[in-house]
Design goal:
46% helix, Rossmann fold, DNA-binding, homodimer
DNA sequence: ACAGTTAAAGTTAGCGCTAACAGTACAGGG
DNA sequence: CCCTGTACTGTTAGCGCTAACTTTAACTGT
């Protein structure tokens, strides 16, 4: 027990005894087991981070922010991919429960509200990223997706565009729904009622963005601009235009969302709504630490506003 | 103890008793604690994955491969970033030790051999990715970087280039050293002795690749081709050429390494040596599972060969 | 000398599970 | 009937740490 006082710097111990014990620790090569400590203290100093795909630059930057702050605070982070599969999402949340993580950060959950309530009830501290959940004692760190898409659409309107299409993300995506609302609001405010055919859903990847753009433009050749769910789908849209011989931005102006590193590196560089993903990750970890520590929480909701970054795809 | 037999499907138990116990488990909402189980069994069913930067597409794909196979096999993965800092690398390895992970996958370690031996001695199962270590009972999954760079350089030679520069990676990078060897070997085989000024070291990022390329071309305007440490530095080289008004590939042909998604999306798309990162991750996890399971290991070394992917930056 | 206080050190039950063993019941063979 | 083997069930010490408590020693005040 004196070893515990030395290792954890807790409880009453004299300097003399501390040094004596430390020497024994060093000599015997004592290596404390956090497993035993966790069982005794009911704390593991671990958290779970659940993302749809850790290789997606949006989530990898969030993960980096989470891991950095976690490390600074003495926590280790379990990384779990859901691969956009609800069953897998439930499975990983259950395995984290058995591992008795101190808390969970869940990104862009695709579970319906009932299932989400059910499975999160077993976790004492939870922060959701990009997912709203009513009547639950969880933190939420949301991007103000509506205002981001509103900004991008307004920018295009200000440049004279009227026929503006929208590449929505996955249908179950909370972010996608919010972005669609912002897009529609900007058009309505300009006195334009966007016909449903100007809106095309697709998974959040380059290839699907390209396919969706080809479909959208085939059905709506009058479009002169396109607001995209994210930068990956926007790059797909660039590829579609290259295929069709449509110049960007002259024939079709394109905006993305997120400002992942790729956005600035493609040709032409993408106008996009910058979401501070790294900071989003840190904010979520900050909220989670507060919950784990039992601090009083001012608000369950943190709203991060995107900012428009103008580049050559829609100057 | 009968609960344990049911939950873990181990030991003798009759069908009648199993059902009876399962009903009690369901009724009471019993949720097993893997922490207690870990203390009793000396197994945590967790592993550590240590990478320089989880947001780097090379490592994020590796992480995805590791996490997928880990999940399939009932393991949870701790994600740890080293940020190219040796002290942090040691710190995370120590924290994994205290968490009693069953094994560690360590990517592109920057520790010198002595320190690496010392800190890995406390881990029973280890697989290194992109790092060779002699006299250690660890697995190693290596990319045959030398042959990759040899292929790229040979391709440029076959296209008639003679003055070929090399953007090396970080000086302490094992991959960088191997790629440099392949580059030099290809030139030597073509009867060319590459002057040291054709070789420029730089960190593995877009911005540093751009800076290094500007420096290299300023000092060596005779260069007509460039082999780059990775795709990120190659994109930096593309940017440098755009700044200098040098056309790619006509004035300077450029090759990258890794074939991260970005490589195909930039303009012009990069010729590059494709490294199957996802598969690299799965291979490493496979080797780690074999070590954790105490299986006899055929070989400590798995060598993965890159293949040349020809695109417009060096057709 | 005695009583009270306090800093420090020592002790142990308990965290929740399981490997290992002991006990029980039954079937089959001699 | 007795013995042996096997399937099954029940029991418990131990994993390594720590919160909580007890004990000890030293000091101070009366």
């Amino acid at each position: 027990m004196t070893v515990s006082r030395v290792v954890n710097n807790k409880g009453e111990i004299s300097t003399t005894t501390r040094q004596r014990v430390q020497e024994v620790i060093d000599r015997l090569g004592y290596r404390p087991s956090h497993i035993a400590r966790s069982l005794a203290t009911d704390r593991t100093a671990t958290i779970g981070l659940v993302v749809p795909d850790n290789a997606n630059p949006f989530f990898s930057e969030i993960a980096r922010g989470v891991e950095h702050l976690a490390h600074e605070q003495g926590y280790n982070v379990f990384l779990c991919n859901t691969d956009e599969d609800a069953q897998r999402e439930i499975a990983v949340l259950r395995s984290l429960e058995e591992k008795r993580v101190d808390g969970v950060i869940l990104c862009s959950s695709r579970l319906d509200a009932d299932d989400l309530h059910l499975v999160l009830a077993h976790h004492e501290a939870v922060v959701l990223i990009n997912r709203r959940l009513e009547d639950a004692a969880v933190g939420m760190v949301l991007v103000d997706d509506a205002s981001g898409a509103y900004l991008a659409t307004q920018h295009l309107l200000a440049r004279g565009h009227r026929a503006i299409g929208f590449l929505a993300g996955p249908r179950q995506s909370y972010s996608g729904q919010q972005r669609q609302q912002g897009y529609c609001a900007a058009l309505h405010d300009a006195g334009i009622a966007p016909p449903p055919v100007w809106i095309q859903h697709c998974p959040p990847m380059v290839t699907s963005g390209k396919t969706a753009t080809l479909d959208l433009l085939a059905a709506n050749p009058e479009l002169t601009a396109l607001v995209c769910f994210n930068d990956l789908t926007a790059v797909g849209a660039l590829q579609a235009c290259a295929n069709l011989g449509r110049r960007v931005p002259d024939d079709l102006a394109i905006t993305g969302t997120d400002d992942i590193p790729l956005a600035a590196l493609v040709t032409p560089p993408l106008t996009t709504c910058r979401v501070p993903m790294y900071e989003l990750g840190r904010q979520a970890m900050r909220g989670l630490l507060a919950r784990i520590g039992g601090e009083s929480i001012d608000s369950n909701l943190v709203l991060v506003r995107p900012e428009l970054v103008i580049r050559a795809s829609a100057p």
